[in-house]
Design brief:
Glycg_phsphrylas; single chain; 10-stranded mixed sheet; 6-stranded parallel sheet; Rossmann fold; binds 1-deoxy-2-O-phosphono-alpha-D-gluco-hept-2-ulopyranose; alpha/beta; transferase; 3 domains; 799 residues; 23 strands
């Protein structure tokens, strides 16, 4: 985008005065940010309109990525980068006496997701635009999003995150595109004289208005600006009388109020289904409206539209598309079914049984009576068709409805043409085990699409120092062609480059140290090894294994304060689901250990623990560039892919890994010498589950080092964790340690002490870091997305 500094300064001043009626110098950071954001939106608006017009004119096939979560992070700098005006704006702001970074920090980071799944959706949106694909996002505009995490006395407290309190400059409300989503009501069928078809009548429904808010997804230096559409629930115009009580109005608002309402009870689960249907239906309605404008035969629908459902949350899009095609557009079941299957594709993100969505049949029957009928019919036809082919037993196991429950994954697989896992190992497990019944029936539907991340946000924006160093060393081609970063390997023995890399890391660690000091009052040494585990708190991700390692060091230093141990800073960032009691206990435990160790002078700063509050995209951007070790220590077979592993690798952290998820592919790319691998392999874990001989109590009894550590949980050493310590101890020792922490403990320790040795050899460590950065190109989400486009969606980048 052509733009010069002088012009920018003039425009910025004008914009500010227009908005706030005084000079920018007197404005608050938030006002200065809003003015800049507004200006930037104005700058891409022409491309935004142009992109949409082009797609319409060419009747280009478009993909719609349906996701209950998006975690875009702050958008200002990423938009500036992709528009190619980041440097110009930075300089302009500078000349105006403003610091772009400070102004950018005034943007509230939208927390519309939980973790990897939501962030993946946002990396994908960036990559879809940046590779020039015609793609749209479809999701929910949560008024509050995910809770804001606070620690009080070490416990997680959840507060509402009012991210919209200052205007959201990026969104555009599109009232003219609003649609009605209907809940409840009565379904009946009528047949008029002379009409061979039954007509569906759906009356007495509770109608909610879905209003879209659109946000531009700016492609990298290519003029493409795609659309992310998030829906908000409102009372339909003119229908206010029907929502006369406060309670009724609240009920409407609640649909798009928070992400993942506590679904440990019936009301929470009901609300969640409402959310899922709400955005699925609204999205499908707007797609159908668009398709009808093209004036094409319905059979061409799958040639123009691909609908991707990110996990099972948007699965109701399948019966909703069926409903619209049949009830509203008059297609037959067979026609509608053919179109639906050809249009929809599905990504599975987990093999954990508890994360597989199932809804009580009665709930769906009450809330969505017509959708319920359609699901029943899909199920009936599925069983009828498959029983003669595969027998009763297998067919019943794949049923969508069983024991009064509706299984969303089964519906997603049966109603789509493609099912993909998110890393090679994960897809293998899906095919061989978790979804094997379906794999037997539909082998051609299954495929792997290993996750990716965008280096634009995770290197170029998050790590400006590394970016500058790379540009200087290998040129700038890697920015548009991430594979090209491999050229860096040629410098693996170049002492000068290795030293520069060390400097870059150090300056990023200093930046994080300043944050820890200013925001948390914790003093850390930037030359210490920064050991990072940042992800949702979950037992299978094994933050606790990390804790056991910390306690091992603690005991060594208590025994001998002069023990020759590498100084380490352990950095955690994690939210626990509000109803996940065990995860919250682990948070309390880590905070208590942090308090104990950080304040023990005899530890002499050899260990510091920093558990950041309210971890999210912006904190990740601060922590990842500062990491030396990337903890990816889930029990093998449980983590579908992981994506923080890729972000950390791209920033030169060395992975401490089990052979799980995409860690396997990271190892293949980076080589055994540049990663620390330990622990059970996925098939060994499977074998243990099968033969049932695992006995954690036995390990506890026989391993004195581990026993001593575990006893710390219950002997009063860690203050304030009487209940938590006991419960966690029991889960590991008395209840047989579901995630095999004790089994993997020795291997983990050994790998950690190897890492210490490697870290103390500066050249060796820096070379490992370099090799990680140089091997990270293939994990660009641009490549992942091009594979989705080519193999699943059948769409091509625009020329
Ligand atoms: C999940 C999986 C990750 C995966 C991610 C994106 C659900 O994310 O567990 O293994 O990388 O989806 O596919 P997370 O645990 O981070 O919430």
């Amino acid at each position: 985008m052509a733009f010069d500094v002088q012009e920018f300064k003039k425009e910025y001043q004008k914009k500010f005065e227009e908005l706030f009626a005084y000079g920018y110098e007197a404005g608050s950071k938030t006002e200065q940010y809003i003015a800049l954001g507004d200006l930037v939106r104005g700058l891409y608006s022409e491309d935004w309109i142009q992109t949409i017009m082009e797609y319409n004119k060419k009747k280009e096939k478009q993909v719609y990525y349906f996701s209950m979560e998006f975690l875009p992070g702050r958008m200002l700098k990423s938009n500036l980068l992709n528009m190619g005006i980041l440097d110009c704006v930075k300089q302009g702001m500078d000349e105006l006496g403003l610091d772009l970074d400070e102004v950018a920090r005034a943007e509230v980071d939208p927390a519309l997701g939980n973790g990897g799944l939501g962030r993946l959706a946002s990396c994908f949106m960036d990559s879809i635009a940046s590779t020039g694909l015609a793609g749209n996002g479809n999701g929910i505009r949560y008024r509050y999003g995910l809770f804001k995490q606070k620690f009080i006395n070490g416990y997680q407290i959840e507060l509402p995150e009012n991210w919209l309190r200052n205007r959201n400059v990026w969104e555009v409300r599109k009232e003219n595109k609003a649609v009605i989503v209907r809940f409840g009501g009565d379904v009946s069928f009528t047949q008029e004289d002379g009409d061979s078809r039954l007509r569906v009548r759906h009356e007495n429904t509770r109608d909610i208005l879905a209003v879209p808010y659109d946000t531009a997804q700016v492609g990298y230096n290519n003029g493409v600006v795609n659309n992310l559409r998030l829906w908000s629930a409102e009372i339909p115009y003119g229908d206010e009388a029907r929502f006369s009580t406060e309670e009724q109005r609240e009920e409407v608002k609640r649909i798009t109020e928070v992400l993942y309402p506590d679904d440990s009870n019936y009301e929470g689960r009901l609300l969640r289904v409402q959310q899922e249907y709400f955005f699925s239906s609204a999205g499908i309605q707007s797609i159908v409206r668009y398709f009808k404008r093209l004036k094409l035969d319905w059979s061409l629908f799958p040639d123009k539209i691909a609908i991707h459902i990110n996990d099972t949350h948007p699965t109701l899009a399948i019966p909703e598309l069926m409903r619209i095609l049949m009830d509203e557009e008059g297609l037959t079941w067979d026609q509608a079914w053919e179109i639906t299957k050809k249009t929809v594709s599905y990504t599975n993100h987990t093999i954990l049984q508890e994360a597989m969505e199932r809804w009580p049949e009665t709930m769906i029957a009450d809330l969505l009576p017509r959708i319920y009928q359609i699901i029943q019919e899909i199920n009936r036809r599925h069983i009828d068709k498959k029983t003669p082919l595969y027998g009763e037993e297998l067919s019943q196991r794949t049923a969508i409805i069983a024991n009064g429950q509706i299984k969303m994954a089964n519906l997603a697989i049966i109603g789509s043409h493609s099912v993909n896992g998110v890393a090679r190992l994960h897809t293998d497990i899906l095919m061989a085990d978790t979804l094997n019944d379906f794999y037997v029936m539909y082998p051609q539907k299954f495929n792997n699409k290993t996750n990716g991340i965008t280096q634009r946000r995770w290197v170029q924006i998050a790590n400006e120092n590394l970016t500058a160093m790379l540009d200087e060393t290998i040129g700038t081609e890697w920015k548009s062609n991430p594979e090209e970063i491999k050229i860096l390997k040629a410098h693996r023995d170049n002492k000068n480059v290795l030293d520069k890399l060390e400097q870059v890391k150090l300056s990023n660690k200093e930046r994080f140290a300043a944050y820890a000091k200013n925001e948390m009052g914790i003093e850390i040494d930037p030359t210490a090894l920064f050991d990072v585990q940042i992800k949702r708190l979950h037992a299978y991700k094994r933050q606790l294994l990390n804790v056991l390692h910390i306690l091992d060091r603690y005991l060594q230093l208590k025994d001998n304060p002069n023990a020759n141990l590498q100084k380490r800073v352990f950095i955690f960032g994690a939210k626990a689901a509000p109803s996940y009691y065990y995860a919250k206990q682990i948070i309390k435990l880590i905070n208590s250990i942090a308090y104990l160790i950080n304040n023990d002078p005899s530890i002499n700063d050899k260990i510091k623990i920093v558990f950041v509050e309210n971890y999210g995209v912006s904190l990740a951007e601060l922590i990842i560039p500062a990491a030396d070790i990337s903890e990816q220590i889930s029990l093998a077979g449980k983590e579908a892919s992981g994506t923080s592993n890729m972000k950390l690798m791209s920033n030169g952290a060395i992975t401490m890994a089990t052979l799980d998820g995409a860690n396997v592919e990271i190892r293949d790319n980076v080589g055994e010498d540049n990663i620390f691998i330990f622990g059970l392999k996925s098939d060994e874990v499977q074998e243990y589950y099968r033969n049932g001989v695992y006995n954690s109590r036995d390990i506890y009894d026989k391993n004195p080092r581990l026993k001593r550590i575990l006893n710390l949980l219950i002997d009063g050493t860690i203050p304030g964790v009487e209940t938590e310590g006991r419960d966690i101890f029991d889960s590991l020792v008395m209840y047989n340690d579901e995630y095999f922490l004790l089994k993997d403990f020795d291997g983990y320790l050994q790998a950690q002490y190897e890492a210490d040795a490697a870290f103390s050899d500066r050249d060796r460590w820096n070379r490992m870091a370099l090799m990680n950065i140089a091997s990270s190109g293939p994990f660009s989400s641009d490549y992942t997305i091009l594979r989705y486009a080519d193999e699943i969606w059948k769409i091509k980048p625009q020329s």
